[in-house]
Amino acid sequence: MAIAKAERLMNLALCLLGTRRPLSKRELRGSIEAYMEATGEDAFNRMFERDKDDLRELGLVIETVENLDGDTGYLARRDSNRLPAITLDAEEAAALGLAAKVWQQARLAGAASGALQKLRAAGMPEAEDSYDSQASALEPRIPVHEAAFEPLMLACRDRRPVVFDYRKANAARPETRHVEPWTLECWRGHWYLAGWDRDRGAERVFRLSRITGKVRSRAGAFTAPVPDVVTVRETVESWAGETATRSARIRLRAGSGYPLRSRAQSVQAGPDGWDELEIPYGHGLDAWLVEFGPDVVVLEPADLRADVVERLRAVAKG
C-alpha cells in the first residue's frame, strides 16, 4: 500500500512538472493508472485532493489556474520547484561522506552511495581523507545482520503494524507478537525496536536478533499514540542494569567478557584463571550475563544467580 501511494505521488508530480499548460482533473485521471482504477468520481476526487496536499507538504509548488472555460487546471512550474545551489563547506561534506560510510553493511549502502554521488555531481566539495591507510580500518560502521531490520525500518517509516515471532532470552520457544513499531536504535552493537505491544497493551522493546522468521505487515492504523520522544536507549539501559543501585559479584574467566570488565567497579585477579568482579546490578542484568555462557559464574546476590540459572536451563532445553 505504501509503495503504491509513493508511485502514485511520483506519477502525479511528473505529470505536473512535465507539462507547459495546466492540466485538468479529467486529463490527470486519464494519464495516471491509479486514478483510472478509482471506483467512481468521488473516490477519485478524494484521492487526488489527498495526493495534491501530500505533494505540497513535501515542498512541491502546485499552482491552481482557471482557463477561459472556467475549468480548473493544475501546474508545477519547473522554475518554481528548482532546488537552490548546494553550498556545503569541507566539514559538512566530510560529515555526509562519513554518514554514507557508516551504512556499508546495510542494504541502505547503495542508496547512501548514490545520494553521495548526486550531491558531488551537483557541486558538493570532495572531502579530503584525513585518515591514512592504516587508520582507515577504524572507520565507524553500523552492523545490520538481522533480516528483520529492513521490513521493520519501512514499517516504522510508514506507520504500519507488524507481526513477528519473538523468542525471549528465558523462553524455550518463540511466541507471536503484534506490534505497532515506533523506532529502531542500535545500542552496544545490537538493534532494538520500540513499539506498542497490542497483546500486552503496553510499550515494549524488542531485540532484533531474537526475532525468528519473517516480519509480516498488517493493514490498518495504529491504535495507540506514538510518543514525541521514544527513549529506546533509556529503556534498554534500565533492563541491562545501567541505572542500577545495587552491586553483584561474579567470577569471570580470564581473557573473556570485556564488556563486563569495562563496567566493573572492581576486579580481583584469581590464581585459577578466573577473576572476581563487582558490577552494577539492575533489572535485566541476568539476560546480559547469560550471553557470556560458561565464562561467567554468579556469586551473589542469590536471586540474580537463580535468574541466570533459570535462563540457562531454558536455553539448554532449546
Q: Outline of this structure?
A:
The protein is of the alpha+beta class and 318 residues long. It has helices at residues 2-17, 25-29, 33-36, 41-57, 90-102, 109-121, 149-158, 232-239, 258-263, 285-290, 302-317; strands spanning 23-24, 63-66, 72-75, 162-166, 175-187, 190-197, 202-207, 211-217, 246-253, 266-269, 274-281, 296-300. Strand 2 and strand 3 form a beta hairpin.
Describe the structure.
This protein is of the alpha+beta class. 36% of the residues lie in helices and 23% in strands. It contains eleven helices and twelve strands. It has helices at 2-17, 25-29, 33-36, 41-57, 90-102, 109-121, 149-158, 232-239, 258-263, 285-290, 302-317; strands at residues 23-24, 63-66, 72-75, 162-166, 175-187, 190-197, 202-207, 211-217, 246-253, 266-269, 274-281, 296-300. The strands form three sheets. Strands 7-6-5-4-8 form a five-stranded antiparallel sheet. It is elongated and about 95 Å long. The two termini are 38 Å apart.
